[in-house]
Design goal:
The structure holds two protein chains of two kinds. Chain A has 15 helices and 13 strands. Chain A is globular. By secondary structure, chain A is an alpha/beta fold. By secondary structure, chain B is mainly alpha-helical. In chain B, a hairpin with a 2-residue loop joins strand 1 and strand 2. The chains are: A alpha/beta, B mainly alpha.
């Protein structure tokens, strides 16, 4: 993995053009299937500008890969779906405008589970992403391509999105650093919606400082997202004796748990540690899926093959046309979630599923708030296992179970980091560090201490 | 439990055409997923629902004209169009 600091040292010795051209070659070779689109022309032009001296930006000359769910003007944005295979957004997402202002070099759009719906990137229309640590295994999902691009030295920085763990899961599986920010810190303008009350765009990188730098650029006020908190972020990592709660209900398989337990004992030199119980977590996973699928059924109603997206050869009556477009344009997991969402919202089931799930959400928020009265941060294993073999998870519900430790964070809108904490048989294990709302500097400060102590 | 007509009903609500083979597959999947959802039957919390975790209310901005996106750029993504408009499927039989 390449840090921003290391890349800047390279920029001091070589031309940006040559360095970027080398990365582009790698991205085009696409060993891990990280990329859906490589933006060669634009990237090389930006590198030339850098070489000509246009370097006034926080991210000047730094390559970044963008998850293909974030709108980029003039560059196709597929969401990993046949439905949007040829869709070219007429505008930039807020985060893309910010990256351009700071002169980052966008090198491509990364592979992902279709519309973000998956934990392995196996639901992508463009094929599975391979884990650079073991190519027989998945890189996780849904931001699998962003993670494998960092782990496979195909980029320095990346943007992912996280609805129920989609930044943290692939970070954990590939041994990279990924932060899901507080809900509302980063504008969702131009992020193609899956479950809008849960999702956030966030930074992925190879060290804590790079996450801080990238978050500083993408966070901030934006009137075009009505749920934007209107706050900016300045990276200033906290240093203190941290009070850490280990969440009793968030566990992992035996080997991952061993690595996690070792991690917990290793941080005792700079942290006070205690176990904490959040009983509502027993219901968080089904509540999460009810809410996510309900929101998906509504958000994905827009794909009708009329204004954009997959279209048939001829127009037909509207009900035939829409139903056929959606049959041919969506993959199986997307159809499942839309239909289950329609079911959960339909007459007779609304109270039993959707409303109940929103009440569980209240309990989860209350449990976390109670815990943060006592603790600065809460920790757990990010994922209950290391990376799965490709094709290992055939059943949808078994796949949903893998999100058990990550989804409660989205229900509560909290920020959470996944950072590498060890290995099991050569496969990375991630630890999840959860903060209170807008406490990103607390999380990153702790992460930095862990990094320096080389746990 | 879930029968064929339930799958057809939600497929129609979702405007997704399904064939016979898909009906059987989705029926099996939906049964598993609903069994998983039914964990929620164990509790009945007496609390208000949370739609959004960050307390925000009626976020307003000044009503000022902004630069619109170019019509051609937007229409470029549509297959069927006529005289600067999208052309949609027939809605009256």
């Amino acid at each position: 993995m390449i840090t921003v600091k290391e890349w800047r040292e390279k920029l001091g010795e070589e031309k940006a053009y040559d360095l970027i051209a080398e990365l582009i070659e790698k991205a085009k070779k696409n060993t891990y299937n990280s990329f859906i689109t490589v933006t060669e022309e634009i990237a090389l032009r930006q590198a030339e500008e850098y070489d000509k001296g246009k370097r006034n930006g926080k991210l000047a000359g730094i390559p970044i890969a963008i998850k293909d769910i974030i709108s980029t003007e003039g560059i196709r944005t597929t969401c990993g779906s046949k439905m949007l295979e040829n869709y070219i957004p007429p505008f930039d997402a807020h985060v893309i405008e910010r990256l351009k202002q700071e002169k980052a070099i966008i090198i491509g759009k990364t592979n992902m589970d279709e519309f973000g719906m998956g934990t392995t990137t196996e639901t992508s229309y463009f094929g599975v992403v391979k884990n650079p640590r073991d190519v027989e295994r998945v890189a996780g999902g849904s931001s699998g391509g962003s993670a494998s691009a960092i782990a496979g030295n195909e980029t320095v920085l990346a943007l992912g999105t996280d609805t129920g763990g989609s930044i943290r899961c692939p970070s954990s599986f590939t041994g990279v650093y990924g932060l899901k920010p507080t809900y509302g810190l980063v504008s969702r303008y131009g992020l193609i919606a899956y479950a809008n009350s849960l999702e956030q765009i966030g930074p992925m990188a190879s060290c804590i400082d790079d996450l801080g730098l990238l978050l500083e650029v993408i966070a901030g006020k934006d009137e075009r997202d009505s749920t934007n908190a209107g706050r900016s972020f300045v990276y200033s990592p906290v240093e203190k004796k941290f009070r850490i709660g280990v969440i009793k209900e968030m566990r992992a398989d035996e080997r991952v748990q061993e690595v996690f337990d070792e991690f917990v004992s290793s941080i005792s030199k700079f942290a006070e540690i205690e176990e904490v119980s959040l009983p509502s977590l027993a219901y968080a996973l089904p509540a999460y899926y009810v809410i996510a699928m309900s929101e998906a059924s509504s958000n994905l109603a827009r794909y009708d093959g009329v204004r954009y997206g997959y279209a048939l050869k001829n127009l037909d009556s509207w009900t035939n046309y829409f139903s056929r477009v959606r049959k041919e344009g969506f993959g199986k997991e997307v159809k499942r979630r839309i239909m289950m969402g329609s079911y959960a919202l339909s007459a007779g089931y609304y109270g039993k599923y959707y409303l109940k799930a929103l009440k569980v959400r209240t309990l989860v928020v209350q449990d976390f708030m109670r815990a943060f009265e006592k603790f600065d941060l809460l920790i757990s294993p990010t994922m209950p296992s290391t990376a799965f073999r490709i094709g290992e998870l055939a059943d949808p519900v078994t796949m949903y179970m893998a999100d058990i430790n990550t989804t409660p964070i989205n229900l509560a809108g909290l920020p959470a980091l996944s950072m590498p904490a060890g290995e099991v048989k050569g496969l990375p294990v991630g630890v999840q560090i959860i903060g209170n709302h807008f406490d990103e500097n607390m999380i990153l400060g702790f992460g930095r201490m862990v990094e320096r102590n080389e746990v | 439990m879930i029968d064929d007509s339930t799958v057809k009903h939600v497929a129609n609500l979702s405007k997704i055409e399904v064939d016979e083979k898909e009906i059987q597959e989705f029926k099996r999947d939906f049964e598993r997923i609903i069994e998983f959802f039914n964990k929620l039957d164990e509790i009945d919390p007496d609390v208000e629902p949370t739609y959004n975790v960050i307390p925000l209310k009626n976020v307003m901005r000044e009503d000022e004209p902004a630069k619109p996106t170019e019509r051609e750029k937007i229409l470029a993504n549509a297959k069927f169009k006529e005289e600067g408009y999208f052309k949609g499927p027939r809605v009256v039989e």
